[in-house]
Amino acid sequence: EGYSVTVPGMPGCCSQGATEAEALENIADAIREYLEVAAELAAEAEAREVEVAV
User: What share of the chain has pLDDT > 90, as a percent?
Assistant: First the structure.
């Protein structure tokens, strides 16, 4: 038994806990880690400008 939590707007972001409170605490940590990784990936992404004629 236990509780599992997912975040629909963050694919793959999920957690679990023995109690509801523990599951919510764990998902808060998972969300923070998810956002940290997303920020790192965004910082590493190469931005470039492309001119397109229509």
Answer: 80
Phi and psi angles of residue 52, each rounded to the nearest 5 degrees, phi first = -125, 130
Residue ranges with strand state E in 1-54: 3-6, 14-17
Radius of gyration of the chain (CA): 17
Q: State pTM to two decimals.
A: 0.76
Q: Quick: pLDDT tens for 7-30.
A: 999 999 999 999 999 999 999 999
| Residues in Cβ contact with 7 at an 8 Å cutoff, skipping those fewer than 6 apart | 13, 14, 27, 30, 31, 34
